[in-house]
Structures are given as C-alpha cells and as structure tokens.
Write a structure and sequence with these properties.
By secondary structure, the chain is mainly α. The chain has helices at residues 2-21, 27-31, 43-51, 62-71. Helix content is 61%, strand content 0%. The protein starts with a helix and ends with a helix.
Length: 72
C-alpha cells in the first residue's frame, strides 16, 4: 500500500510539473468539465474555509494557524 501511495504522489508531482511547464494542455479537458459540480458545498462552509476557520467550531485550523505564524 505504501508503494502505491508513493507512486500516486510521484504521478501527481509529474502531472503538476507537466501542466505548469506546458507539456500537457489542459484546455481541452477543461472544456469537457460540467459547468457546476454535481454536489456543491454550502456557501457558509466555503466562507469559513476562506476565512481560515474550521466550519464546525469556528476556530482556526492547524494549517491556517501555521500559515499565519509564517506570515508574521
């Protein structure tokens, strides 16, 4: 299982690199995407995420707190 995880991470890294460098054109694939996702997330959850708040208890998530420490 760990080998599969490592391979998927390697594939993701390579895919991102190919898109960023222009080796892979994603415009054609993006044209076939639906206009709206099948199941949209509630707007209040998205607003909490954008504000760096955990949607359940309104507190900052660990990742957001770490990011603010780096900025400070």
């Amino acid at each position: 299982k760990q080998r599969e995880i490592d391979l998927m991470r390697e594939y993701r890294t390579r895919l991102i690199a190919d898109v960023v460098t222009g080796k892979l054109d994603v415009r054609a694939a993006a044209a076939h995407l639906p206009d709206e996702p099948a199941e949209a997330e509630p707007a209040d959850t998205l607003a909490d995420d954008a504000a760096g708040l955990d949607s359940e208890d309104g507190e900052m998530t660990e990742t957001d707190a770490d990011a603010e420490q780096v900025e400070a």
